[in-house]
Design goal:
Length: about 350
């Protein structure tokens, strides 16, 4: 006989699973939506499109509860906020952090305020933040302006900052590195990911480093970071005052974790490079059409970076195992998904009409 308990997931979220490794105040039960434990999907067809002769795996973070990797950091940050007795949280966001903060705050019964760049946030992210009941404030400015404002707000009002300046966020996000190592039994040769505020690259590096120090892996991966050409402060070496890219998630001109990202890149003997919106859009379509993995545009920057590195000859992946982090779900940004693709053909509900338009090769 199957008892009811057997029908319930044995996964209790990243804070419960990795609690001894997380340096957060977790004196209360975790505020969780059972985030994490995301799939590491082999992508052989995409690897062939990228030149073949290496193994490619996609860490599909889009299947987290609010559709992005931000949930890993948010379960940690909101758990700590509750443990610390907070009543309200605030963040600036290009969208995913806003949706995630709103969801975890709702779950914890906290008030949540999010600042987003007016008109430059993907529809699914705005829909999420509003649906979870956050106070959403659109500013006539970009993410960097919003961050400056929320930092100051937390000094003047009793409200906790949940941007990745908050160390608990990185503590939660480093669990993605743990999961990859737990799944593979070792670290991959390369880890590729988009870089916006540079919290995620910093958190991954922290995770791999801690597993190395504890003898759970023998080596750490090399890091390949990707920025959008119009929003590439780390690649250029200076703040970008007016960042622009189709990949609105990484439309950031002055990353908070800039120095830590540089340290991680240099310690890992890695690379950071910039890719154009055209390249991003190309690989955005490719990952969906070759592997059935629908991601938001920012994610495709890591694939575009691989293509660029191989084309220009500075990235040798022969025989290597590469993990690309697909940080957010494609449904977050339906407008970009639909633009540039033909609308469906409309036909009469008759078989002849269907046979006329069938495109089976
Ligand atoms: C899908 O939500 O900054 O380098 O405010 O949504 O850690 O900033 C989002 C960033 C990559 C970059 N991929 O990560 C926000 C925000 C997706 C993202 C990044 C973001 P970081």
């Amino acid at each position: 006989m199957v008892s009811a308990a057997h029908t319930v997931s044995t996964w209790h979220g990243v804070v419960a699973h990795y609690r001894p490794r997380l340096r957060i105040n977790s004196s209360v039960p975790p505020v969780t939506l059972l985030e994490g434990n995301t799939p590491l999907i082999p992508a052989p067809r995409l690897a062939r499109a990228l030149g073949g002769d290496f193994e490619l795996l996609l860490k599909y973070e889009g299947v987290n509860p609010t559709g992005s990797f931000k949930d890993r950091g948010m379960t940690a940050a909101i758990t700590q906020a509750v443990a610390d007795g907070a009543q309200a949280v605030i963040c600036a966001s290009t969208g995913n952090t806003a949706a995630s903060a709103a969801a975890y705050a709702a779950r914890a019964g906290l008030a949540c305020v999010v600042l987003v760049p007016d008109g430059k946030i993907a529809a699914g992210k705005l829909a999420g933040a509003l649906s979870y009941g956050a106070q959403v404030i659109a500013i006539n400015g970009n993410f960097d302006d919003g961050l400056r404002m929320v930092r100051e707000a937390t000094e003047r009002a009793p409200i906790v900052l949940v941007n990745n300046i908050n160390p608990a966020r990185l503590q939660g996000q480093k669990t993605a590195a743990f999961e990859i190592c737990d799944a593979l039994g070792e670290a991959p040769d390369w880890l590729c990911l988009p870089v916006g505020n540079a919290g995620n690259i910093t958190a991954y590096w922290m995770g791999f480093t801690e597993y190395l120090e504890d003898g759970l892996i023998r080596s750490r991966p090399r890091l390949l970071g990707a920025q959008a050409a119009g929003a590439a402060p780390i690649v250029r070496g200076h703040v970008v005052e007016k960042p622009e890219t189709i990949a609105t998630a990484i439309r950031i001109g002055n990353p908070v974790r800039w120095q830590q990202a540089l340290a991680a890149l240099s310690e890992s003997n890695g690379h950071i490079t910039d890719v154009t919106d055209e390249e991003i859009l190309h690989w955005y379509r490719m990952v969906a059409q070759t592997e059935g993995v629908f991601v938001e545009p920012a994610c495709a920057s890591s694939l575009a970076a691989i293509a660029k590195g191989r084309r220009e000859g500075w990235l040798d992946l022969r025989g290597k195992r590469v993990v690309c982090v697909m940080t957010g779900h494609g449904l977050k940004d339906p407008d970009t998904a639909l633009s540039g693709l033909p609308a469906p053909v409309t036909i009469q509900p008759q078989i002849e009409a269907l046979l006329d338009v069938l495109q089976v090769r």
